[in-house]
Structure formats: structure tokens, C-alpha cells
Design goal:
Belongs to the drug/metabolite transporter (DMT) superfamily. Small multidrug resistance (SMR) (TC 2.A.7.1) family. Gdx/SugE subfamily. One of its GO terms (molecular function) is transmembrane transporter activity. It is built from 4 helices and no strands. The protein has about 110 residues and is mostly helical. The longest helix is centred in the middle third of the chain and has 23 residues.
Length: about 110
């Protein structure tokens, strides 16, 4: 269950990271409210997951999911570059997430 919570926390991290783009410096009410709500949900879920998942592993995976999701969103919806080097780096982050999960023993 903790791993599901961690995965959801990572998805909400993507939500708030992407949301920051649309708040226009926190001057737009609804994007700001949704971004703040996503931040709160993400942190609560992370905190719940860290009850049983080691801190270093959980935090690294949480940020990794957020990074991957944000980069993929940028490529798909914001016309950010999808160069071989960039995708290779994203693959390394994914490998790190999978590796941490595999060696966590949980």
C-alpha cells in the first residue's frame, strides 16, 4: 500500500509542478488554488508512504516520478525538445527509480 501512496504522491507532484507554469506567478486564482491543493495532497501522501518506505528511497522516487512526469508533460504538451540526450537522461532517472524500488526490499 505504501508504494501505491508513493506513486500517487509522485503524480500529484507532477500536478503541482505543471500547475506552477499556469499560475502566472501565483496571480491566477484557480490555477494557484489547484496547484496548492496538489502540493498538499502530494506531501500528505508522501508522508504516509514514508511510514514504511525508507526516507532516502521514498524521497528519491517521489522526486523522480515528479521529474519524469514533468519532462514528459513538457515534451507532449509544451513543445519542449525531445532530443536523444534529453531522453537518455530521462531513461537514467527511470532506471534509478526502478533500481531503488528493486533494492529497497519492500
Amino acid at each position: 500500500m505504501a508504494w501505491i501512496l508513493l506513486g500517487l504522491a509522485g503524480l500529484f507532484e507532477v500536478g503541482w509542478a505543471v500547475g506552477l507554469k499556469y499560475t502566472d506567478g501565483f496571480t491566477r486564482v484557480w490555477p494557484t488554488a489547484l496547484t496548492a491543493a496538489s502540493m498538499i495532497v502530494s506531501l500528505v501522501l508522501l508522508g504516509l508512504a514514508l511510514r514504511t518506505i525508507p526516507l532516502g528511497t521514498g524521497y528519491a522516487i517521489w522526486t523522480g516520478i515528479g521529474t519524469l512526469g514533468t519532462v514528459i508533460f513538457g515534451i507532449l504538451f509544451l513543445a519542449e525538445p525531445a532530443t536523444a540526450a534529453r531522453l537518455g537522461c530521462v531513461a537514467l532517472i527511470l532506471a534509478g527509480i526502478v533500481g531503488l524500488k528493486l533494492v529497497s526490499g519492500a
